[in-house]
Amino acid sequence: MGIEILIVDDDPIGGSLTNTLLQEAGYDTQLITDSKLAMDTVKNERPGLVVLDILMPGIDGLTLCHMIKQDPGIRDTKIIMVSAKTFQAEKQRALRYGANLFIEKPYNIETFAHQVTEVVGPPRGGSASVKPVETALNIQIWGSRSSGGQGLKTPCVSVETPKHLFIFDAGTGILDAGSEITRAARHKDIWVLLSHYHPAHIEALGRFAPSRQGGVQLRIGGPTDPDKSLSDAVRDAFEASFDALPQPVAAQIQLYELQEGHYDLLPEVKLSAFYANHPSTTLGFVLDAEGRRVVYCPDCELYGESASAMQDYDEKVGHLCHGADLLIQDARWTDADYDAHKNEGHSSASSAIDFAVRHEVGHLLLFHQDASYSDPALEQMEAAARETLKSRGSRLDCRIARPGLKLSV
Ligand SMILES: [Zn+2]
Q1: Residues 170-192, mean pLDDT to the nearest whole number
Q2: pTM for this one?
């Protein structure tokens, strides 16, 4: 298949910036700096869009625009004119000749690809253009349900920075994460952070594939629980794993007992842990890396509107979550079911949404859905969440966390 966008710019620096921005957005592009070649290239390659600089030696951009729009064979080609020197008369002429859009240089790097997408549509290869131009953290959901069975996967979320990999919780979702990490072989030093030791959060730790690989450093962090220490929890998990995975543990394992507080995990990575409102000692985590903030709080009950004077949990945690790029939040119950499960340590979808809106987070993933909910029930929950947000005029991106869901922030 031919190219999607042809860029004609005599300035190699300006032209290659345009080229790079559009390639990063996912388009197949070609840059030519000799405008005399432009007409032939458009006829041969049939791009959907031509980006034309106005001031060029040879044939100038306005003349090219006119020629393309006069040629019955290629007149449907979309045209964006770009120019550093903007004269109102040129702009009007460009539009009169049939240009679809006029963009001034220097570009706004954040919005340029989006402006192009509005004219030509998303790239053929997929929706890369909806991503921000720079993405620093890649998040993937591997498991998200309150308990397993019938193919449901219990909590596990990975957060990958350009250099490091962090895994939150070791429910059965970690089995798929482990296979993928082993296959991709990008990381030999892996952090696994456990929120607490209820089975859904640790049951598959011992079967995490990288634990059987030599040369792997596995750093496991978790709370100090009076009923079960981190070392007991980890030992039990591995002892239970050998039937399914008889190979000896070959990774180097290091344990980190965590309490509420701030930790410098790595030179550019900070972790804050906070006690979540949930039976047993349970931590929520705030990961700060690459200038982004991700909050993982799989099991906790937000009090919402009904908080009493003694219940300052929402406030305490809200402070840490404020402005986070992503919040992965317990929303185990639909609003209808929550009443019957108050004070058990899990939140309703509405309280999660209220909380996320109040604290101006960028993306909200509703997490840890009750295992009794069917897929259509989850779809309804998601639709209801979107409806609520729309009626409030909120632009919060809110989705149900499902295995396979990927997000970049
Ligand atoms: Zn729990």
Answers
A1: 96
A2: 0.68
Sheet holding 269-275, edge to edge: 261-266, 269-275, 283-289, 292-297, 326-330, 363-367, 397-400
Walk across the sheet containing 78-83 and list its strands: 29-32, 5-8, 49-53, 78-83, 101-104
Residue type, 136: A
- For ligand 1, the distance from its centroid to the CA atom of residue 150, given in whole angstroms, is 20
pLDDT attached to residue 126: 67
pLDDT tens digits for range 60-112: 999 999 999 999 999 999 999 998 766 778 888 888 889 999 888 888 877 88
| DSSP assignments along 152-208, one per residue | B---EEEEE-SS-EEEE--STHHHHHHHHHHHH---SEEEEE-S--SHHHHTTGGG-
Distance 223 CA to ligand 1 centre (A): 13
Segment 192-213 mean pLDDT = 97
Give the lowest-confidence range in 196-200, 264-268, 307-311, 375-379.
307-311
Where in the chain is CATH 3.60.15.10?
138-408
Q: What are phi and psi of 142, to 5 degrees?
A: -110, -25
CA–CA gap between residue 202 and residue 204 (Å, rounded): 6
- Does residue 278 carry a pLDDT above 80? yes
Neighbouring CB atoms inside 10 A of 41's CB total 18
Q: What is the pLDDT of residue 312?
A: 78
Q: What is the pLDDT of residue 309?
A: 65
If you measure from the C-alpha of residue 197 to the centroid of ligand 1, how many angstroms do you get, rounded to a whole number? Answer: 7
CA of 142 relative to ligand 1 center, distance in Å: 18
CA of 279 to the centre of ligand 1 (A): 7
Question: What's the mean pLDDT in 252-258?
Answer: 95
- In what helix (H) or strand (E) does residue 99 lie, and over which residues does it extend? none
Centre of ligand 1 to C-alpha 322, Å, is 24
CA of 202 to the centre of ligand 1 (A): 10
Looking at residue 86, its pLDDT comes to 64
Distance 66 CA to ligand 1 centre (A): 66
* Angle, helix 61-70 to helix 88-96, in steps of 10 degrees: 20
- Name the residues around ion ligand 1, CB cutoff 5 A: 198, 299
Query: Which CATH number is associated with domain 138-408?
Result: 3.60.15.10
* CATH topology for the 5-128 domain: Rossmann fold (3.40.50)
